[in-house]
Amino acid sequence: MTKITPQFEDYWPSMQQAISKLLHQLDVSKLEWQELFWNVHNVLQWDEKAKDKLQDALHRDVLEFISEAQSTVLSHHDDQSLLKAYVAAWSKFFVQCNYLPLPFAPLMTNPNKSSNTKNTINEENIVRKLMYSSWNENIFSNIKHRLQDSAMKLVHAERNGEAFDTQLVIGVRESFVNLGSNANDKSIYIENFEKAYIESTESFYHSKAAEYLLSYGVQSYMVWADSKLKEESTRGAKYLEPFSLPALNDTCVRVLVTNNKDLILSECLGMIQGNNTNKLNLMFKLLDRIEEGVEPMLNYLEEHIVNQGLADIMASAEIITQDSEKYVEKLLNLFTKYSTLVKEAFNDDPRFLTARDKAFKQVVNDTSVFKLELASRPKMNNGQATKLPPESRCPEMLANFCDMLLRKTPLSRRLTSEEIEIKLKEVLLVLKYVVNKDVFMRYHKAHLTRRLILDSSADNEKEENMVEWLREVGVPADFVNKLARMFQDIKVSEDLNQQFKNSQNGTSEIINIKILNVGAWARGSERVQVSLPLELEDFIPEVEEFYKKKHSGRKLQWYHHMSNGTICFSNQYGRYDLDVTTFQMAVLFTWNERPTDKISFENIRLASELPDAELRRTLWSLVAFPKVKTQIILCDVPLKSMKDFTDTTLFWVNQDFHLIKNGKPQRRGKLNLIGRLQLSTEKSVEEDNEKIVQLRILRTQEAIVKIMKMRKRITNAQLQTELVEILKNMFLPSKKMIKEQIEWLIEQKYMRRDDDNIGVFIYMA
Amino acid sequence: MTVNNNNNNNSSNADSSNNNKLFSLKKWNAVAMWSWDVVSDTCAICRVILMDACLRCQADNKQDDCVAVWGECNHSFHNCCMSLWVQQNNRCPLCQQEWIVQRIGK
């Protein structure tokens, strides 16, 4: 190796040539490019001082190139052409910033830990940094404000519909981003470009929005604002760094939506009234961009549904209070209408669904059209009478409608099985909103009892399905189980009836028995005394005898207000089969001994032994049965009210009674006189209401104790909340009742108030 | 429907004598309720009304099999409650007399 050590000066000229070519983006041959790598390597290997020298020389050259570029760029005075020239120069330079550093990579390797390259990977590229900072100092920092301004002007022009080379704006942004002191430092970009961009966006739309609102009105403004929001987010994605987008979006939303929120909202109610789902959907999308933006819409919706619902019901109050089918239909129309609205306009957003549900609940439980008064006589609670605030009759109407669907009625005959099922499901939907489900349950059970006893169910399978559906919608298990038990029990009784008939001969054609478990059906319900006609009386010992053989330890009680039958009425016109209650039978059979006599009320009472009120109802059903032209029994007082009967009122059999069909008198026919009479004695309605109240009191006490036992210590407010939660599937306890029950429980030493804070209760074991 | 010729004034009607009457019975659906023939209607062991199944049977869904039992002392309980009770103490929980089954309901 006699060769002289290579010196920096020897290599530089050829290197310089290549560098200059690179900077000016002239063709660099493969050989030249490789030579540059080789030279850099060589120089650094042999010349100790080469590193500094090389950097200095490189810096000099870059500066030289930059000053050339500077003069070309700055020769343009007009901002627009300045921008163009700058971006052209920058984009060239930007490309070179990626190539030129490559051959100089060895400059960066630290000789002390040359083998350990891992650390250097992330280090700033010295050459690139040198290039960037030279560019920044010499060109960019001087004109950046001008550049930025003209870029913003371009964006502004684009917003006004002019097209231009988007690269111009992007180039400026790149300069801002890359010319930071290091790669992660975006502060120059944020403080200048991003800020300017967002500010110009805001001022642009600030004036535009006001203008647009003024000339086109709110509804078209919403369309416009929505499209502008989308447009700006696409534009932002083009011209800004991704991390700037949330800030831009916030600004756009503020200037386009928040600032005009009140104006937009002022249209909301009108749109809901007009069922304008498309526009509401737009409004929802706009306002949902703001925090709490949709709250007022929720209020409008709720308020509107309530007003509309109540108005609907009020308008047809007459029909609705009489006709449960119409009532349920009205409610369902309302539900369907607004559920569709919420779906189409608000995409079933949970907040709107809640608002809808709240409104439905209010409509369903409203008491302005019809009320149910529940009161209990003082019985259990230290003598004080509990009177509850009036309640909606909705649950009663729902139960009545269910009965119409499940019983053999003209309605249930007209509908297909599927239609009935749909309607029942609809009832359950309404039931979901009913606060006092216990009222529904009571009526439903009464109706079911009647259907099972009279064998008047339209479809047994549907009956049992209904029980399961009730379970599914959250009706308390103990109630549903009771219904299920009734079905079981009636089957047991059917088997028994069969066995009874097999054991008898002759009479078996006439009598059917139902012997039911009192626990499943009618615990504690009052029986009504009646003196049975001999024909019936004779069966009683037979049945009792038979039953005693089958079972032991059981006692039987006859529920004649539940029993019924068919009798044949013969007169000169023909023979008519009458379906009657046992009470009606007892009354009618009085005339068998004296067919043409006029018998006084008092004498009928003595013969039938029916209580006054029951006798009135029974006679009334025979003298004023609404479905026939001629009544079976006539009387000597005008038919205004059953209260007009006195002891001396006379009754006699109408010998001219006949049935008419298609305008012709019939010789034969069948008439059902039972109607609503069966199973509801005069007293039972009042008693049932009382039972509901009593049960509520018990349930409330039970729930309070349950909560206290678990919590040991609880504030009044918390207790109320938990109580409502526990009882929600049965009823909504009134504040007054809760208070009374708490007092009672305190008196009974189940719990006490905290000595220091009377708003806190403490459980006492 | 077969022999009847609607001649109601004629007392020699082919049907039974019932038909001479103004109102005659064709069918009667009689309803009765049964309950255990007991003095106290609550089982003193499980505190459930005797007409309902005891809690154990309610949980096992064996309502129909849960019957009442009477002792010589005339006190009554759920049969299943009592059979558990006598394993511990062969006395009536109410009167402390020796427990002798008088009858079991069915």
TrEMBL record, chain A:
Keyword line: Isopeptide bond, Nucleus, Phosphoprotein, Ubl conjugation, Ubl conjugation pathway
UniProt key word Ubl conjugation: yes
Transmembrane region(s): none
Superkingdom: Eukaryota
Keyword Nucleus: yes
Pfam families referenced in this protein's UniProt entry, alphabetically: Cullin (PF00888), Cullin_AB (PF26557), Cullin_Nedd8 (PF10557)
GO terms (BP aspect): protein ubiquitination; signal transduction; ubiquitin-dependent protein catabolic process
Record-linked Gene3D superfamilies: Cullin Repeats, Cullin, Chain C, Domain 2, Winged helix-like DNA-binding domain superfamily/Winged helix DNA-binding domain
Family: Belongs to the cullin family.
Stated name of the protein: Cullin-5
Organism whose genome encodes this protein: Tetranychus urticae
Automatic annotation (TrEMBL), chain B:
PROSITE patterns with a match to the protein in the record: ZF_RING_2
GO MF term set: NEDD8 ligase activity; ubiquitin protein ligase activity; zinc ion binding
InterPro entries: RING-box_E3_Ubiquitin_Ligase, Znf_RING, Znf_RING/FYVE/PHD, Znf_RING_H2
Family matches, as Pfam families: zf-rbx1
Localization per record: Cytoplasm; Nucleus
Recorded GO CC terms: Cul5-RING ubiquitin ligase complex; cytosol; nucleus
Lineage: superkingdom: Eukaryota
Pathway field: Protein modification; protein ubiquitination
Binding partners and assembly: Catalytic component of multiple cullin-5-RING E3 ubiquitin-protein ligase complexes (ECS complexes, also named CRL5 complexes) composed of CUL5, Elongin BC (ELOB and ELOC), RNF7/RBX2 and a variable SOCS box domain-containing protein as substrate-specific recognition component. Also interacts (with lower preference) with CUL1, CUL2, CUL3, CUL4A and CUL4B; additional evidence is however required to confirm this result in vivo. Interacts with UBE2F. Interacts with CSNK2B, the interaction is not affected by phosphorylation by CK2.
Protein name as catalogued: RING-box protein 2
Organism of provenance: Tetranychus urticae (Two-spotted spider mite)
